[in-house]
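Hi R.,

As promised, here are both runs. First protein below:
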Amino acid sequence: MEPATQPQSSSARVLDSQFWSDLGMKYEEAYSQDPGLVAIVQQWLNHLPPHSTILECGCGTGKPIARTIADHSSGPHHYHGIDIAAGMVSLCQKQVPGGTYQVVNMLDFVPPPPAASSSPDNDNNNNNTQSYNGIVASFSHFELSPQDHVQMARNWSQWLRPGGYLLLCTITADGGDEVAGIYHMKNADTRFDPETGCATGIENIFLGNRILVTVYTREGWKKLLRDAGFEVLVEKAQSFCPRAEEAPEEPRFYIIARKG
Protein backbone atom coordinates (compact mmCIF):
# COMPACT_ATOMS: atom_id res chain seq x y z
CA MET A 1 0.00 0.00 0.00
CA GLU A 2 1.29 3.44 -0.88
CA PRO A 3 0.96 6.90 0.66
CA ALA A 4 -1.17 9.73 -0.66
CA THR A 5 0.54 12.26 -2.91
CA GLN A 6 -2.57 14.21 -3.89
CA PRO A 7 -4.25 16.91 -1.75
CA GLN A 8 -6.56 15.62 0.96
CA SER A 9 -9.98 17.08 1.71
CA SER A 10 -10.66 18.05 5.30
CA SER A 11 -12.68 14.86 5.84
CA ALA A 12 -10.40 12.39 4.06
CA ARG A 13 -7.98 10.10 5.88
CA VAL A 14 -4.29 10.09 4.93
CA LEU A 15 -3.36 6.44 4.44
CA ASP A 16 0.21 6.54 5.67
CA SER A 17 2.47 3.64 6.59
CA GLN A 18 1.22 3.59 10.18
CA PHE A 19 -2.40 3.34 9.02
CA TRP A 20 -1.62 0.25 6.95
CA SER A 21 0.47 -1.33 9.67
CA ASP A 22 -2.34 -0.83 12.18
CA LEU A 23 -4.92 -2.20 9.75
CA GLY A 24 -3.09 -5.51 9.36
CA MET A 25 -5.38 -8.46 9.98
CA LYS A 26 -8.56 -6.41 9.53
CA TYR A 27 -7.48 -5.86 5.95
CA GLU A 28 -6.71 -9.54 5.51
CA GLU A 29 -10.07 -10.62 6.90
CA ALA A 30 -11.83 -8.34 4.41
CA TYR A 31 -9.76 -9.04 1.30
CA SER A 32 -7.89 -12.36 1.54
CA GLN A 33 -10.77 -14.49 0.22
CA ASP A 34 -11.04 -13.23 -3.35
CA PRO A 35 -11.51 -16.02 -5.95
CA GLY A 36 -11.58 -13.60 -8.87
CA LEU A 37 -8.24 -12.10 -7.91
CA VAL A 38 -6.72 -15.53 -7.38
CA ALA A 39 -7.94 -16.58 -10.84
CA ILE A 40 -6.35 -13.60 -12.62
CA VAL A 41 -3.08 -14.08 -10.71
CA GLN A 42 -3.00 -17.71 -11.82
CA GLN A 43 -3.71 -16.66 -15.41
CA TRP A 44 -0.84 -14.16 -15.25
CA LEU A 45 1.49 -16.76 -13.71
CA ASN A 46 0.73 -19.11 -16.60
CA HIS A 47 2.48 -16.61 -18.91
CA LEU A 48 5.70 -16.68 -16.87
CA PRO A 49 8.53 -19.20 -17.24
CA PRO A 50 9.15 -21.63 -14.38
CA HIS A 51 11.14 -20.27 -11.45
CA SER A 52 10.65 -16.66 -12.49
CA THR A 53 11.76 -13.57 -10.60
CA ILE A 54 8.63 -11.72 -9.47
CA LEU A 55 8.11 -8.33 -7.84
CA GLU A 56 4.93 -7.38 -5.99
CA CYS A 57 4.47 -3.63 -5.42
CA GLY A 58 2.35 -3.45 -2.28
CA CYS A 59 2.52 -6.98 -0.90
CA GLY A 60 0.09 -6.34 1.97
CA THR A 61 -0.39 -9.33 4.26
CA GLY A 62 0.56 -11.85 1.55
CA LYS A 63 -2.96 -13.17 0.96
CA PRO A 64 -4.07 -13.94 -1.57
CA ILE A 65 -1.39 -12.88 -4.09
CA ALA A 66 1.95 -13.91 -2.53
CA ARG A 67 0.34 -17.13 -1.31
CA THR A 68 -0.98 -17.88 -4.81
CA ILE A 69 2.46 -17.25 -6.32
CA ALA A 70 4.10 -19.55 -3.76
CA ASP A 71 1.59 -22.34 -4.40
CA HIS A 72 1.61 -22.18 -8.21
CA SER A 73 2.79 -25.27 -10.09
CA SER A 74 5.38 -23.32 -12.11
CA GLY A 75 7.34 -22.45 -8.96
CA PRO A 76 9.15 -22.10 -6.81
CA HIS A 77 9.51 -18.54 -8.00
CA HIS A 78 11.93 -15.91 -6.73
CA TYR A 79 9.44 -13.57 -5.03
CA HIS A 80 10.28 -10.04 -3.86
CA GLY A 81 7.53 -8.24 -1.95
CA ILE A 82 7.69 -4.55 -1.13
CA ASP A 83 5.32 -2.39 0.92
CA ILE A 84 5.51 0.95 2.68
CA ALA A 85 3.99 -0.52 5.86
CA ALA A 86 6.35 -2.46 8.12
CA GLY A 87 3.40 -4.21 9.76
CA MET A 88 2.15 -5.50 6.43
CA VAL A 89 5.60 -6.71 5.40
CA SER A 90 6.00 -8.54 8.72
CA LEU A 91 2.68 -10.33 8.24
CA CYS A 92 3.48 -11.24 4.65
CA GLN A 93 6.89 -12.61 5.59
CA LYS A 94 5.39 -14.77 8.34
CA GLN A 95 2.54 -16.08 6.21
CA VAL A 96 4.50 -16.60 3.00
CA PRO A 97 8.09 -17.40 3.99
CA GLY A 98 10.73 -18.06 1.38
CA GLY A 99 10.63 -14.77 -0.45
CA THR A 100 12.56 -11.56 0.08
CA TYR A 101 10.84 -8.55 1.58
CA GLN A 102 11.50 -4.86 1.86
CA VAL A 103 9.83 -1.91 3.60
CA VAL A 104 9.95 0.83 0.96
CA ASN A 105 7.72 3.20 -0.98
CA MET A 106 7.32 1.86 -4.52
CA LEU A 107 8.28 5.32 -5.82
CA ASP A 108 11.65 5.04 -4.05
CA PHE A 109 12.31 1.37 -4.80
CA VAL A 110 15.50 0.46 -6.66
CA PRO A 111 15.62 -3.16 -7.87
CA PRO A 112 18.69 -5.22 -7.12
CA PRO A 113 20.95 -6.21 -10.02
CA PRO A 114 19.77 -9.46 -11.66
CA ALA A 115 21.71 -12.55 -10.71
CA ALA A 116 22.94 -14.62 -13.62
CA SER A 117 21.29 -17.74 -12.25
CA SER A 118 18.04 -16.18 -11.03
CA SER A 119 15.97 -16.78 -14.15
CA PRO A 120 15.85 -19.14 -17.13
CA ASP A 121 15.37 -16.09 -19.35
CA ASN A 122 18.32 -14.04 -18.08
CA ASP A 123 20.27 -12.94 -21.13
CA ASN A 124 23.16 -11.48 -19.10
CA ASN A 125 22.66 -8.02 -20.56
CA ASN A 126 24.22 -5.03 -18.84
CA ASN A 127 20.95 -3.29 -17.86
CA ASN A 128 20.85 -3.82 -14.12
CA THR A 129 17.26 -2.55 -13.89
CA GLN A 130 15.79 -5.39 -15.95
CA SER A 131 15.44 -7.65 -12.95
CA TYR A 132 12.02 -9.34 -13.21
CA ASN A 133 10.04 -11.72 -15.38
CA GLY A 134 6.80 -10.57 -13.75
CA ILE A 135 5.51 -7.60 -11.74
CA VAL A 136 2.16 -7.32 -10.00
CA ALA A 137 0.59 -4.18 -8.54
CA SER A 138 -2.74 -4.90 -6.87
CA PHE A 139 -4.82 -2.02 -5.48
CA SER A 140 -1.67 -0.37 -4.13
CA HIS A 141 -1.47 2.74 -6.30
CA PHE A 142 -4.77 4.66 -5.92
CA GLU A 143 -3.28 7.48 -3.87
CA LEU A 144 -0.49 8.24 -6.33
CA SER A 145 -0.75 11.46 -8.31
CA PRO A 146 -1.24 11.27 -12.10
CA GLN A 147 2.43 12.18 -12.54
CA ASP A 148 3.47 9.37 -10.19
CA HIS A 149 1.26 6.91 -12.08
CA VAL A 150 3.11 7.81 -15.29
CA GLN A 151 6.44 7.33 -13.52
CA MET A 152 5.40 3.99 -12.02
CA ALA A 153 4.26 2.67 -15.41
CA ARG A 154 7.68 3.58 -16.79
CA ASN A 155 9.40 1.99 -13.81
CA TRP A 156 7.47 -1.25 -14.23
CA SER A 157 8.51 -1.35 -17.87
CA GLN A 158 12.13 -0.59 -17.01
CA TRP A 159 12.26 -3.22 -14.24
CA LEU A 160 10.84 -5.99 -16.43
CA ARG A 161 12.99 -8.02 -18.76
CA PRO A 162 11.98 -7.87 -22.45
CA GLY A 163 8.88 -9.99 -22.86
CA GLY A 164 8.08 -9.80 -19.13
CA TYR A 165 4.51 -9.56 -17.86
CA LEU A 166 2.74 -7.00 -15.70
CA LEU A 167 -0.47 -7.69 -13.79
CA LEU A 168 -2.33 -4.53 -12.80
CA CYS A 169 -5.33 -4.94 -10.48
CA THR A 170 -7.27 -1.71 -10.21
CA ILE A 171 -10.58 0.16 -10.37
CA THR A 172 -11.86 2.38 -13.17
CA ALA A 173 -13.55 5.65 -13.95
CA ASP A 174 -16.18 5.70 -16.67
CA GLY A 175 -16.48 8.37 -19.37
CA GLY A 176 -16.89 12.11 -18.83
CA ASP A 177 -16.29 13.49 -15.36
CA GLU A 178 -18.22 10.82 -13.48
CA VAL A 179 -16.67 7.87 -11.70
CA ALA A 180 -18.25 4.45 -11.95
CA GLY A 181 -19.71 2.35 -9.15
CA ILE A 182 -18.90 3.45 -5.60
CA TYR A 183 -16.27 5.92 -6.83
CA HIS A 184 -18.72 8.74 -7.45
CA MET A 185 -18.25 10.89 -4.33
CA LYS A 186 -16.84 14.12 -5.76
CA ASN A 187 -15.65 17.15 -3.81
CA ALA A 188 -14.04 20.52 -4.49
CA ASP A 189 -10.73 18.83 -5.35
CA THR A 190 -12.18 16.44 -7.94
CA ARG A 191 -10.74 16.81 -11.43
CA PHE A 192 -11.10 14.79 -14.65
CA ASP A 193 -8.67 14.94 -17.57
CA PRO A 194 -10.41 13.66 -20.73
CA GLU A 195 -7.11 13.37 -22.60
CA THR A 196 -5.62 10.87 -20.15
CA GLY A 197 -8.88 9.52 -18.73
CA CYS A 198 -7.67 10.27 -15.20
CA ALA A 199 -9.95 11.36 -12.34
CA THR A 200 -8.33 12.71 -9.18
CA GLY A 201 -9.66 13.77 -5.79
CA ILE A 202 -12.42 11.15 -5.73
CA GLU A 203 -13.68 10.38 -2.25
CA ASN A 204 -14.39 6.78 -1.31
CA ILE A 205 -15.19 4.81 1.83
CA PHE A 206 -12.53 2.18 2.56
CA LEU A 207 -13.12 -0.03 5.60
CA GLY A 208 -14.96 2.81 7.30
CA ASN A 209 -12.41 5.49 6.35
CA ARG A 210 -13.06 8.28 3.87
CA ILE A 211 -10.11 8.49 1.48
CA LEU A 212 -9.18 10.18 -1.79
CA VAL A 213 -8.25 8.09 -4.81
CA THR A 214 -6.93 8.56 -8.33
CA VAL A 215 -8.57 6.41 -11.00
CA TYR A 216 -8.46 6.15 -14.79
CA THR A 217 -11.04 5.06 -17.31
CA ARG A 218 -10.47 1.62 -18.82
CA GLU A 219 -9.03 3.23 -21.93
CA GLY A 220 -6.99 5.54 -19.72
CA TRP A 221 -5.36 2.64 -17.88
CA LYS A 222 -4.54 0.93 -21.17
CA LYS A 223 -3.13 4.14 -22.67
CA LEU A 224 -0.97 4.65 -19.56
CA LEU A 225 0.58 1.21 -20.03
CA ARG A 226 0.91 1.43 -23.80
CA ASP A 227 2.71 4.75 -23.50
CA ALA A 228 5.18 3.00 -21.18
CA GLY A 229 5.92 0.30 -23.76
CA PHE A 230 3.39 -2.40 -22.86
CA GLU A 231 1.11 -4.47 -25.05
CA VAL A 232 -2.22 -5.12 -23.34
CA LEU A 233 -3.08 -8.81 -23.67
CA VAL A 234 -5.92 -9.39 -21.22
CA GLU A 235 -8.49 -7.08 -19.67
CA LYS A 236 -11.24 -8.22 -17.33
CA ALA A 237 -13.88 -6.44 -15.28
CA GLN A 238 -15.68 -7.96 -12.30
CA SER A 239 -16.97 -7.03 -8.87
CA PHE A 240 -15.96 -8.14 -5.39
CA CYS A 241 -17.62 -7.75 -2.01
CA PRO A 242 -15.12 -7.57 0.88
CA ARG A 243 -15.88 -9.52 4.04
CA ALA A 244 -16.50 -6.43 6.15
CA GLU A 245 -19.77 -4.75 7.10
CA GLU A 246 -18.43 -1.26 6.35
CA ALA A 247 -17.11 -2.24 2.90
CA PRO A 248 -19.50 -2.01 -0.07
CA GLU A 249 -19.18 -4.04 -3.26
CA GLU A 250 -16.20 -2.92 -5.32
CA PRO A 251 -15.80 -2.85 -9.12
CA ARG A 252 -12.53 -4.39 -10.27
CA PHE A 253 -10.50 -4.11 -13.48
CA TYR A 254 -7.59 -6.42 -14.26
CA ILE A 255 -4.97 -5.99 -16.98
CA ILE A 256 -2.25 -8.40 -18.06
CA ALA A 257 0.30 -6.61 -20.25
CA ARG A 258 3.57 -7.67 -21.87
CA LYS A 259 6.65 -5.49 -22.16
CA GLY A 260 7.62 -5.07 -25.79
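And here is the second one, sequence first, then its C-alpha coordinates:
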Amino acid sequence: MSTDDILWSPLFDVLDEYTRDEDAKALFEVSREKYLAERAAQTFGTANPSLMEKPFWKYMIAFGGATSNFRETFDPPESAWDYWKPVWCFNREGQTETKLRDGRVICIGGRHVVFDDPDSCIYNDVVVILPPNQPSQILTPQRIRIYGYPKDEFPPTDNHTATCVRDVKTG
Protein backbone atom coordinates (compact mmCIF):
# COMPACT_ATOMS: atom_id res chain seq x y z
CA MET A 1 0.00 0.00 0.00
CA SER A 2 1.42 3.39 -0.95
CA THR A 3 1.11 6.71 0.85
CA ASP A 4 -1.28 7.85 -1.90
CA ASP A 5 -3.63 4.97 -1.02
CA ILE A 6 -3.67 6.01 2.61
CA LEU A 7 -4.41 9.65 1.86
CA TRP A 8 -7.14 9.04 -0.72
CA SER A 9 -10.58 10.18 0.30
CA PRO A 10 -13.84 10.37 -1.67
CA LEU A 11 -14.56 13.58 0.25
CA PHE A 12 -11.35 15.20 -0.99
CA ASP A 13 -12.07 13.95 -4.51
CA VAL A 14 -15.47 15.62 -4.73
CA LEU A 15 -14.33 18.83 -3.01
CA ASP A 16 -11.35 19.08 -5.39
CA GLU A 17 -13.74 19.05 -8.36
CA TYR A 18 -15.16 22.39 -7.21
CA THR A 19 -13.75 25.88 -7.39
CA ARG A 20 -13.24 27.01 -3.78
CA ASP A 21 -11.82 30.52 -3.85
CA GLU A 22 -12.58 33.82 -2.11
CA ASP A 23 -15.68 34.33 -4.29
CA ALA A 24 -16.98 30.94 -3.18
CA LYS A 25 -16.26 31.73 0.50
CA ALA A 26 -18.41 34.86 0.26
CA LEU A 27 -21.43 32.73 -0.71
CA PHE A 28 -21.45 31.06 2.70
CA GLU A 29 -22.15 34.31 4.57
CA VAL A 30 -20.54 33.37 7.88
CA SER A 31 -20.97 36.28 10.24
CA ARG A 32 -20.21 36.62 13.94
CA GLU A 33 -23.93 36.25 14.69
CA LYS A 34 -24.25 33.04 12.67
CA TYR A 35 -21.07 31.63 14.19
CA LEU A 36 -22.30 32.34 17.73
CA ALA A 37 -25.70 30.79 16.95
CA GLU A 38 -24.31 27.71 15.17
CA ARG A 39 -21.00 26.91 16.84
CA ALA A 40 -22.30 24.32 19.32
CA ALA A 41 -20.89 20.94 18.32
CA GLN A 42 -23.30 19.01 20.47
CA THR A 43 -26.33 20.05 18.47
CA PHE A 44 -28.64 17.20 17.53
CA GLY A 45 -31.57 16.91 15.19
CA THR A 46 -35.12 16.89 16.51
CA ALA A 47 -36.54 14.55 13.83
CA ASN A 48 -35.23 11.53 11.98
CA PRO A 49 -33.66 13.22 10.05
CA SER A 50 -33.53 16.99 10.54
CA LEU A 51 -32.08 19.09 7.73
CA MET A 52 -29.51 21.31 9.45
CA GLU A 53 -29.31 24.60 7.54
CA LYS A 54 -26.25 26.08 9.24
CA PRO A 55 -23.97 28.32 7.12
CA PHE A 56 -21.08 28.05 9.60
CA TRP A 57 -21.17 24.23 9.47
CA LYS A 58 -21.32 24.25 5.66
CA TYR A 59 -18.39 26.65 5.54
CA MET A 60 -16.35 24.30 7.76
CA ILE A 61 -17.14 21.40 5.41
CA ALA A 62 -16.22 23.36 2.28
CA PHE A 63 -13.11 25.15 3.50
CA GLY A 64 -12.04 23.46 6.73
CA GLY A 65 -9.75 25.28 9.02
CA ALA A 66 -9.11 25.21 12.71
CA THR A 67 -11.94 26.05 15.05
CA SER A 68 -9.44 28.11 17.03
CA ASN A 69 -9.30 30.58 14.12
CA PHE A 70 -13.05 31.13 14.39
CA ARG A 71 -12.85 31.44 18.16
CA GLU A 72 -10.23 34.18 17.79
CA THR A 73 -12.21 35.98 15.10
CA PHE A 74 -15.75 35.73 16.41
CA ASP A 75 -15.81 34.83 20.12
CA PRO A 76 -16.23 37.92 22.26
CA PRO A 77 -13.94 38.18 25.30
CA GLU A 78 -16.96 37.97 27.62
CA SER A 79 -17.66 34.42 26.38
CA ALA A 80 -14.43 33.01 27.82
CA TRP A 81 -16.56 31.12 30.35
CA ASP A 82 -17.70 28.67 27.63
CA TYR A 83 -14.23 27.98 26.26
CA TRP A 84 -14.66 24.27 26.99
CA LYS A 85 -17.87 23.94 24.97
CA PRO A 86 -16.84 22.36 21.64
CA VAL A 87 -17.21 24.27 18.39
CA TRP A 88 -18.64 22.24 15.48
CA CYS A 89 -15.82 20.91 13.34
CA PHE A 90 -15.52 18.80 10.19
CA ASN A 91 -11.84 18.00 10.68
CA ARG A 92 -12.60 14.45 11.81
CA GLU A 93 -11.19 11.00 12.21
CA GLY A 94 -13.19 7.79 12.21
CA GLN A 95 -15.96 9.06 9.92
CA THR A 96 -17.04 7.06 6.92
CA GLU A 97 -16.86 8.67 3.47
CA THR A 98 -18.77 6.73 0.83
CA LYS A 99 -18.99 7.77 -2.81
CA LEU A 100 -22.22 6.73 -4.55
CA ARG A 101 -22.54 5.93 -8.25
CA ASP A 102 -24.15 9.30 -8.96
CA GLY A 103 -21.11 11.09 -7.50
CA ARG A 104 -22.58 12.08 -4.14
CA VAL A 105 -20.33 11.58 -1.14
CA ILE A 106 -21.94 10.57 2.15
CA CYS A 107 -19.98 11.27 5.35
CA ILE A 108 -21.25 9.78 8.61
CA GLY A 109 -20.28 10.73 12.16
CA GLY A 110 -16.65 10.72 13.18
CA ARG A 111 -14.76 12.47 15.91
CA HIS A 112 -12.62 15.50 16.41
CA VAL A 113 -10.49 14.47 19.34
CA VAL A 114 -7.22 16.09 20.21
CA PHE A 115 -5.77 15.87 23.69
CA ASP A 116 -6.82 18.87 25.78
CA ASP A 117 -8.71 20.42 22.84
CA PRO A 118 -11.98 22.08 23.84
CA ASP A 119 -13.45 21.15 20.46
CA SER A 120 -13.20 17.39 21.04
CA CYS A 121 -16.50 15.79 20.12
CA ILE A 122 -17.99 12.64 18.56
CA TYR A 123 -20.70 13.38 15.98
CA ASN A 124 -23.91 11.73 14.80
CA ASP A 125 -24.57 13.77 11.66
CA VAL A 126 -24.76 12.68 8.05
CA VAL A 127 -23.26 15.04 5.46
CA VAL A 128 -24.11 14.72 1.77
CA ILE A 129 -21.98 16.57 -0.76
CA LEU A 130 -23.43 16.75 -4.24
CA PRO A 131 -21.05 16.46 -7.19
CA PRO A 132 -20.55 19.45 -9.47
CA ASN A 133 -22.83 19.75 -12.50
CA GLN A 134 -20.09 21.25 -14.68
CA PRO A 135 -16.30 21.64 -14.64
CA SER A 136 -14.91 24.34 -12.34
CA GLN A 137 -18.30 24.91 -10.71
CA ILE A 138 -18.14 27.09 -7.60
CA LEU A 139 -19.00 25.20 -4.43
CA THR A 140 -22.15 26.75 -2.97
CA PRO A 141 -23.93 26.03 0.32
CA GLN A 142 -26.77 24.41 -1.69
CA ARG A 143 -24.39 21.60 -2.75
CA ILE A 144 -23.93 20.54 0.90
CA ARG A 145 -26.66 18.93 2.98
CA ILE A 146 -26.31 18.15 6.66
CA TYR A 147 -28.73 15.86 8.44
CA GLY A 148 -28.94 15.70 12.22
CA TYR A 149 -30.62 13.04 14.30
CA PRO A 150 -31.94 12.78 17.83
CA LYS A 151 -29.17 11.43 20.04
CA ASP A 152 -31.36 8.60 21.35
CA GLU A 153 -32.20 7.41 17.80
CA PHE A 154 -28.70 7.70 16.30
CA PRO A 155 -25.99 8.02 18.96
CA PRO A 156 -22.70 9.76 18.10
CA THR A 157 -20.48 7.27 16.26
CA ASP A 158 -16.94 6.88 14.99
CA ASN A 159 -14.77 4.07 13.62
CA HIS A 160 -17.80 2.38 12.07
CA THR A 161 -18.24 1.10 8.53
CA ALA A 162 -20.48 2.07 5.64
CA THR A 163 -20.71 0.03 2.45
CA CYS A 164 -22.34 1.04 -0.80
CA VAL A 165 -24.07 -1.99 -2.29
CA ARG A 166 -25.64 -2.38 -5.71
CA ASP A 167 -29.40 -2.88 -5.82
CA VAL A 168 -29.78 -6.18 -7.70
CA LYS A 169 -33.23 -5.15 -9.00
CA THR A 170 -32.27 -1.76 -10.44
CA GLY A 171 -28.56 -2.29 -11.09
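A quick note on the second one: DSSP finds six helices and five strands in the chain. Let me know what you think.

Best,
J.
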